[in-house]
Amino acid sequence: KEQKKINFKINFCPLGYSQNNYIANLGYCKQNKNVNYDFNILLKSKKPNFLTQHYNTSFSFNWHNFSPIRHLSVMLKSSFMNSKISISSSFNHYTNYLYFNEFVSPVQLRDDMFYFNIVFNKTWLLNNFYFRSNFLIQKANNELLSIPELLLQQRIQYQYIIPNNIKILSSIDFQIFSKYYINSYFPLTEIFYLQLEEKRGMVPLMSANLEIYKDNFSIGCVLNNISMFLFEGEYLIKDYPFAPPTLQLLVKWQFLN
Q1: For the chain, what is the radius of gyration of the CA atoms?
Q2: Angstrom distance (rounded) from CA 109 to CA 113
Q3: What is the distance between the alpha carbons of residues 116 and 75, in angstroms, rounded to a whole number?
Q4: From the centroid of its chain, how far is CA 72?
Q5: Strand partners, 243
Q6: Nearest CA among 89, 12, 80 for reference residue 46
């Protein structure tokens, strides 16, 4: 049976620092036995909301002098039930886009900013194995919004049930993305700011976990930064290298009334 739903939401702030901020969202969903379609339009206007004291640089500024950041987003997603494939895409338009320049000072872009992406998702079930793949393609019209154009994520999960309903769950997560200008970090105010000198990326990121659980209790371990066995000293953000591989103990205990 086919189902259709339309949702509309709007929020508006009439007073205070956020005066005239608004969010309007229109969503449409169509479902049938084989395919789900989701369509969404978002319109947002918001003043830069940095109320904490910023480090005093040679460039003076007042947050109240900045124009509202306006964002228009159009998203479409299709999910195919039988093949377990989903494809989603979004188009975004920004006006008065705000970023922190190489002097760690906020600046608003005078030109319009455009951003587009498309995401492919596929899952497989094979006996006790579960596979999930995500592939992202994205593009912006300005390097001030620096992003990896390609990103791949892969998860492989295995579950086995032994007597007394005890379950063993293990998984491996892998991620890699193309090179791009990754923002530098300013620890004094915990701000990421623009740098257009060095592109970083194409470093595989991998983690694994093993977990034994029954009912509301589980115990296991997580191994992070596995790829650093081969890429010791690698970094994405300058002066902040990856941590070495670490093994963590995991305990979960859920109490129910």
Answers
A1: 23
A2: 8
A3: 10
A4: 18
A5: none
A6: 12
| Interstrand relation of 235-237 and 240-241 (parallel, antiparallel or unpaired) | antiparallel
How many other CB atoms are found less than 10 A from the CB of residue 108? 14
What pTM was computed for the model?
Answer: 0.85
Q: Which of 179, 176, 126, 178 is nearest to 154 (CA)?
A: 176
Rounded Cα distance, 36 and 154, in Å: 23
Q: Is the dihedral of CA 136, 140, 146, 149 positive or negative?
A: positive
Tokens of 105: 């000072």
pLDDT in tens, 24-69: 999 999 988 889 999 999 999 998 866 555 555 555 567 778 899 9
